[in-house]
Amino acid sequence: MNLQQFRFVRETIRRNFNLTEAARSLYTSQPGVSKAIIEFEDELGVRIFERHGKRLKGLTKPGQAVSEVIDRIMREVDNLKKVSDEFAQRDEGSLVIACTHTQARYLLPRVIPAFRARFPKVHVSLAEGNPEHLAKLVLHEQADLAIATETLAQTPGLVALPVYAWEHTLVVPPDHPLTELTSSAARNLSLEHLSRYPIVTYDRAFSGRRAIDEAFDRAGIVPDIVLEAIDADVIKTYADIGLGIGIIAGVAFDPRRDKGLVGLPAGHLFGRHTTSVAIKRGVFLRDFVYVLMEMLAPELTRDVVAEAVSQPAPPVRDAA
User: PANTHER family from the entry (predicted)?
Assistant: First the structure.
């Protein structure tokens, strides 16, 4: 057995058992991947994959155990490469940050310039997407870390650490009726009052949308959501032209920048949320990754992060 066979098995699983896609991602031929997997199975003396004719349909029970071992082996191989890079080229390399648009637009501009000043030879890339996609990028080691509000803390294999807490903000044009409310009335705005107006807010995968839906559900109210978008800039644009009340993450509203809009607090309606940074459990982190995480949140010191990454995964609880 060899590392190439391990890579073929791992990539086949990642590509939903599609040998053609696995071969394409590995820059090799589909027959070559198929042959290597069969030889590996023969060497082990067990079937790793369930088959229907020539097609792979899933993992056998032994295959699930083999997959877990291969993941551990390949993680340690990748760790060895990172150790080499850390000591051979300590302040050089690449850093891939998986993040939502909100974090790319409003959080990271406060951090990236200082990071680049300290590590000018590190190439930084941003990989944007929804939280579920970001989690997969980190799990598959296509990104070094992910920053988002949803999903990360619930994803097995990831360690999610808090970066900052936030609440939703309502955004409306200056001539909207809600702007006539006193400060006290705005802070006590009800869901029933809010539901009298059309609403523009996030897609269901982003920025606390679940909390918005759950709040209206608990109140027995069906809001008139006329447009959903994946980023706050689009929501603010449509709020500005009067399509509806925008509901966005508070970090995305700045009165100095968003002069055509008025912001109203909505934390009392939709609760408080935490944006987290997630890394893969058990990986070796380059020095500049530790530095970036502390720049994101000062309490995320090297010792705190290293201890979190090294901790074994919590046991999976059986459903009651």
Answer: HTH-TYPE TRANSCRIPTIONAL REGULATOR, HTH-TYPE TRANSCRIPTIONAL REGULATOR CYSB-RELATED
What sign for the dihedral angle of Cα 14, 37, 18, 32? positive
Q: What is the pLDDT of residues 285-311, one digit of tens each?
A: 888 999 999 999 999 999 999 999 888
Query: What tens digit of pLDDT does each residue of 223-258 get?
Result: 999 999 988 999 999 999 999 999 999 999 999 999
CA distances from 137 to 26, 58, 71, 158, 221 (A): 17, 21, 15, 11, 37
C-alpha separations of 38 from 292, 304, 320 in Å = 43, 44, 40
Q: Quick one: tokens of 215?
A: 């709040």
H, E, C per residue of 105-173: HHHHHHCHHHHHHHCCEEEEEEEECCHHHHHHHHHCCCCCEEEECCCHHHCCCEEEEEEEEEEEEEEEC
SS3 259: coil
Q: In the numeric block, which tokens belong to residue 213?
A: 């839906």
CA dist 255 and 169 (Å) reads: 12
| d(C-alpha 19, C-alpha 27), whole Å | 12
Can you tell me the distance from the alpha carbon of 65 to that of 313, in angstroms, rounded to the nearest whole number? 16
> What is the number of alpha carbons within 13 Å of residue 35 lying toward its C-beta?
5
Triad 155, 86, 144: Cα angle to 5°: 20
Question: 123 to each of 95, 104, 256, how far by Cα in Å?
Answer: 6, 16, 32
- Are 266 and 282 within 8 A, CB to CB? no
Give whole-number Cα distances, 233 to 85, 149, 163, in Å: 39, 17, 22
Q: What is the pTM of this model?
A: 0.72
**Residues with Cβ < 8 Å from 250, sequence gap 6 or more?**
166, 167, 168, 169, 265, 267
Mean pLDDT, the chain, integer: 90
The tokens of 195 are what? 């539901």
Average of per-residue pLDDT across 105-115: 95
